[in-house]
Structures are given as structure tokens and as C-alpha cells.
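Lab notebook, bench 4. The sequencing result for the construct came back, and we need a structural model before the next group meeting so we can plan mutations. Quick request posted to the team channel:

Model the 3D structure of this chain.
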Amino acid sequence: MHAPSLSDRSIEAYASVTGRKRLERLRSLADALADVRILHVNSTATGGGVAELLRSIVPLCTDLGIDTDWLVMDGDDEFFEVTKAMHNGLQGSGPSLTEGMKATYRAVTERNAREFDGEYDFVVIHDPQPLGMIDRLEETMPDAPITWRCHVDLTDPSDEYLAFVSEYTSRIDHAVFSRSAYEIEIDAPTTIVYPSIDPLTEKNRSLDEGTMANERDRLYPLSFDAPVVTQVSRFDPWKDQFGTLEAYRRARERVPDLQLALAGGMAGDDPEGEKLYERVAGEAVDDPNVHVLADLPDARVNVLQRLSDVVVQKSLREGFGLVVSEALWKRTPVVGSNVGGIPLQIEDGKTGYLVDPEDASGAGDRVADLLEDDRRRTEFGEHAREHVRERFLLPRQLVDLLEVAVDALDRSK
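Done. Here's the predicted structure in C-alpha cell form:
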């Protein structure tokens, strides 16, 4: 395991985007946890929403005076192929779970666990990948509550994968899910905590005119002199870039000069990403108005989301989909699938539109509706900004997570 390098952060900087009462609440919770050591464990430091959240949460906890560490598992390609299969299986579609796959999972998690020698008062395990470390954690820290933070869509999990994961989740002390529909039977208290975006990161903060112009130029040959619809997501089958291509072609029947940007990256723990990127790029190669953009820097993603006329998130399954809130925060309306955490973020008919995940034609029609109505896009954008400010910014999530720790440790607050 290794600890990622992190930049210093200041909670006071968030006074410009959130209410003073929320910051006061964070300081009160931090006082209750002043002598506590917290550990977060996950499987990648880059390329996924969990890593993005931890890059903000961990240094902010430190700034608040809470001793907080983050460790990332070390694994080989075989291990990450198994854990990606687990991810897919827990979301309802994965290969059969073999004894060999179980053995690979156990060997890598146990090897990582042997490297662990710290002492903490509260441990958060993110998603299924590190769950196999629970024996070692219980042995070295028998009094530390272990919380499983599940970011996966568990509405329709494969029985065999759920049974395997349940061998470990049956021993946790608390579980945190992103929405109530994901809760599974666990003999421990559960809490619902919505994920959030960090409004002060390079991807989400306001940009000066010079940066905007520079990053816009670097998106060439994409032109913002004609309408642009964008999807930002990992290259992953659940994100349905092929369905987004179909929706774009439908919208072009009404908006002939429409362009599509499919921007995304490959998470460090996802061996399928590169192959899917190549398939998507191959599907789009004959259309000069489709731009497949891989591993853009955060500032360029920021500009792309701001300058796009509409953002699409046509996922088939979605743990939460924070790229929706990213776009809404930038006043860009979103057409998204009615799955996972997306309907929690989009107010249908007010900040964007919700469509059936299989309805690419319907998604295309909604995109065209927005492109043909400038006033509606502007109104949706203003509503979107305030909706995200209240519900999906980092200080709110941090309050929720610290309350879980305070409750688990039975601290006064």
C-alpha cells in the first residue's frame, strides 16, 4: 500500500460557496474528533470519483485538526480484472465468479494487509476492493469501528458476487451508501450520504478569462461557434458512450451543425478502459463532428463543461455520477438517465431532463429541445447552480461523514 501525495487545503476557503453555519458545524464535529486518527483505504489514487473525493476530504480533515490518512492498495492487472468483474457483478452484469478469481482477490488483499502496521481509531474502506483486508484490520485494531463506504449501484446485484462480498460486509461495524435503494442486508447500522463535488478544485472552480481562452484553444478542432453536447465519463460500458453517440445522431436531425465531445479517462483500477476507448474512437472516426477526448487535464474539462450547450450522462447503471453536478454547478443543463444517483441531481424539467437509460432517441430529442430554446437553457442553468450549492458541495458531505464517525465512536457533538 502507499499514501498518495496531497496538497494542503483550507476549510475557510469554502466560505465563499457554502453557508457559515455549515462551516461552524464542521468545526464543532472536528472538536469532538480532535484526538481521533482516521484512515481511508481504497484501490486507486487517480481516475475515479472516489479518488477525487479523497483528495479533497483527507487534507480538509487535516486542516480541521483531525489526524487523517489515506492509503491506496497495490495490485496487479489480474487483481484489477477480478475487482472490475466484482464491480460489474454487483451492478448486475458480470462473468461467473470462479474459485480462481476468489483466490486472486484474497491473495492480493491479504498481501496488502500484511503491509499495514498503523493504529487508527476509525477506518473507512471504500468499495469492495479492500474488503479482504478486514481480518488484519480487526486483528491490529480490535477497538476501531470499521465503516464500509459503498459507492456502487446495488439495486440489482448478481447473487454470487453479493454472497462473496457479504462474507466480509457481515463483519463491518457500519455501512454508508449513496442512496437508500442501494442498501443491502447488513447486520450493522447504515447511513445514506450523497457524494459531492469540490467547487474549489481545478475542475470546478471559476476560471479567469486567460485560462478559459487558453484551454478553449487547446480543445481544437472542437469549435464552440456551433452547438456542442458533451459527455464526460470514464470509458466504461456502464457509461454507454455508444448510446450517447446514438442520441447525438438523433439530435442532429434537428440541429444539423451539432458537435459531440466524448471526454473521459481510464481509472487506475479499471483494465477495461483502454479497450473501450479504442472501440468508441473507432465508432466515431468517420464523423468529423464527434471528438473523442482522453485524459484531459482538469482545467480543460472545466472549460468544456462550461462552454458546452448541453451535457449528457446516458449511463445504464450509475453509483452516483458526480459529473452531473459538475456540469450543473457550471450552469449547464444535463440530460441524464433515470438511474442510480442521477435523478437525485437532476430536477426533471427544471435543471435538465431525465430519460429511460435505454432510450437514446428520447435523450436525443431532449438535447434538441434544449438546443432550440436559449431561454430555457439559461433558466435551467440558474436553477442548476443553486440546486448543487445546497445539496452536492463538499462541505455538506464532509459534515455527513464526520457525523458518522462521531456516532460510531460515541463522541459528544
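Residues 374-391 form the longest helix (18 residues).
Will bring this to the meeting.
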